[in-house]
Amino acid sequence: MASYSVCVSSGCKSYHAGVPILANLYMQVETGTIYGLLGASGCGKTTLLNCILGQKRLDSGYISVLGRDPVKCMDDMVTSIGHMPQDIALYPLKIFEIFEYFGKLMGLSKHEILARGEELRNILKLEDLHSYVQTLSGGQKRRVSLAVALLHHPKLLILDEPTTGVDPLLRESIWQYIAGLVFKMGTTVIVTTHYTEECRKFDKIGIMRRGRIIAEDNPRHLLELGGSLILEDALKSICKKDEEDGNDAYDFLSTKTISNYQYCEIEPLQEDIKQLSFRVRQYDSYLALVLLLPAMNTVIVYYTMGRVPFGKVVSVFNENADCFGGNTNFPHMEVNTSLSCLFLKEIGPNIILQPQFSRNSAKATVESGSAIGFIHIPANFTRHTINRYALARFALGQDLDQSTVHVSLDMSDSITISYVYSDILKGYLRFVENLASRIGIDPRTVEIPLKYNAKLDSHEFTSQDHFLPSNIVSTCFLFSLICGLSLTLEKEAGTLERTLASGVKIRHVRMSYFISESATSLIQIVLMFAIRFLTAGYNITGSFFLCFSIAFLTSLASIGCGLLLGTIFSKRFDVTMASVFAVLMIVQTSGECSNR
Ligand SMILES: Nc1ncnc2c1ncn2[C@@H]1O[C@H](COP(=O)(O)OP(=O)(O)OP(=O)(O)O)[C@@H](O)[C@H]1O
């Protein structure tokens, strides 16, 4: 009595309510045979194979694979099954690394993987095993994918369009090899293909239409049934007859009972997470760049953002005195005793003063953008300023007006302007304190009677002090969140599904991402701190440990967030949009762009 490796009974499956993909499907695949699954594109072949592999569940009906329920027992069976999916589904690694990865998951030793890899390279005419998969042609990649499915000598081989894009001669030798496996090792093979004629040598062909197997028999009988010597024509006529018959399926199955079906306990596969650590190596050639990116960002931010502005030009229209010796192109303060010159000398070194000969020309320099502001000093500034401070409460209104310096600033760059504003103000206060001493007044009387005593730190705060800590947080968050995108890319490429089909649990995949990304983040943060605090000369005045811990914990939280996004979304566009939103929220709420 024939034994069956795969039996499907009353299989029903739909993705959307009311649109059946598998509709009461029956299928029997005898052990040690090649079974060809033929049908129009979109008729449900891949869906059926995924159900057989336990990757998708039937809505109703039964499937038995090697005598077991694939959904519940796939962990026990992964080493007995080889699957070549329709998509290439290979990681961007060297061919031998891919063999190593899947071979180890299948329980092969390093020696066995090497020997088998070499054997398959000869049979499938593969490129040098040190070639990167991404550099191969479509047909070459497909052969590597087939080699992965064959690597561990599986009992059941499921091949979804294995010979697409492979030249006829090589296709012939692949089928010869597979026929040899069936003959010598009793392997069972299920194949989908669009090359109808290559099914002539198969033991059985199942014709799928509208979610059912409408005919299942050996090629000779199907040719007779279709009344043609050409298989393609015979299949067409069988499908046509099915349509005319109002979809009643041909029932070639002698029995629909599945004799050797049994349930089993779920035993978690002893999967080694180390196997998945290669994820870090996916970056391989640009690993150094990945590790250095946050540090490079740090340097760029340090040298471009929030620095004390240097060399900002402020125009001066001074009616009181010519402090520049008439030289407007190379402003160089001459020694001059007029008070306006003494005031201008006190303005900080970061500001370049540019003399102008009229108020209008000074204003024009600001409007044209060549100066950030202008200072207007009245004609009798010296005399009226002395009166203002010497006469104090007896000073006239004219003294007060004519000793007032008018400053107009371009407020569109508020951060730079705050420095310029502060430099001019501090310059004036220094000037007036000196003046008070010279005219015999206690300088404290002209000081602003407010003393700022920094509570946390005695050094002067710049806007870099304000946003660099927040920038560390948002940089850590941004670079770690990217793992969500990697997970989605794995989904899109089909490599995740293939890894899961090799018995790996999704929680192990997530854990491997978490471990590898955490290690990457740790190195990134060390480099970022090293460059930020050693090279850029930036100091931490509080606890270094706390600062480092906050950065690392932010990265860990971001990796968790990225994995959550990668789990929820299946398309890179969706995960990218969600990540951009998350980063924006972090940047805006971390205080980098606003008040904390
Ligand atoms: N995850 C999914 N969600 C929704 N619909 C799906 C999904 N996967 C497949 N389908 C739909 O199910 C139908 C059958 O798809 P399936 O991939 O099984 O066809 P196929 O026979 O393998 O096609 P092909 O020969 O072109 O590979 C198609 O209409 C497809 O759009």
From TrEMBL:
<dbReference type="Pfam" id="PF00005">
    <property type="entry name" value="ABC_tran"/>
</dbReference>
<keyword id="KW-0472">Membrane</keyword>
<feature type="transmembrane region" description="Helical">
    <location>
        <begin position="543"/>
        <end position="566"/>
    </location>
</feature>
<dbReference type="GO" id="GO:0005524">
    <property type="term" value="F:ATP binding"/>
</dbReference>
<keyword id="KW-0067">ATP-binding</keyword>
<keyword id="KW-0812">Transmembrane</keyword>
<dbReference type="GO" id="GO:0140359">
    <property type="term" value="F:ABC-type transporter activity"/>
</dbReference>
<feature type="domain" description="ABC transporter">
    <location>
        <begin position="6"/>
        <end position="235"/>
    </location>
</feature>
<dbReference type="GO" id="GO:0016887">
    <property type="term" value="F:ATP hydrolysis activity"/>
</dbReference>
<keyword id="KW-1133">Transmembrane helix</keyword>
<keyword id="KW-0547">Nucleotide-binding</keyword>
<feature type="transmembrane region" description="Helical">
    <location>
        <begin position="286"/>
        <end position="305"/>
    </location>
</feature>
<dbReference type="InterPro" id="IPR017871">
    <property type="entry name" value="ABC_transporter-like_CS"/>
</dbReference>
<dbReference type="InterPro" id="IPR003439">
    <property type="entry name" value="ABC_transporter-like_ATP-bd"/>
</dbReference>
<feature type="transmembrane region" description="Helical">
    <location>
        <begin position="511"/>
        <end position="531"/>
    </location>
</feature>
<feature type="transmembrane region" description="Helical">
    <location>
        <begin position="472"/>
        <end position="490"/>
    </location>
</feature>
<dbReference type="GO" id="GO:0016020">
    <property type="term" value="C:membrane"/>
</dbReference>
<dbReference type="InterPro" id="IPR013525">
    <property type="entry name" value="ABC2_TM"/>
</dbReference>
<dbReference type="InterPro" id="IPR003593">
    <property type="entry name" value="AAA+_ATPase"/>
</dbReference>
<protein>
    <submittedName>
        <fullName>ABC transporter G family member 23</fullName>
    </submittedName>
</protein>
<dbReference type="Pfam" id="PF12698">
    <property type="entry name" value="ABC2_membrane_3"/>
</dbReference>
<dbReference type="InterPro" id="IPR027417">
    <property type="entry name" value="P-loop_NTPase"/>
</dbReference>
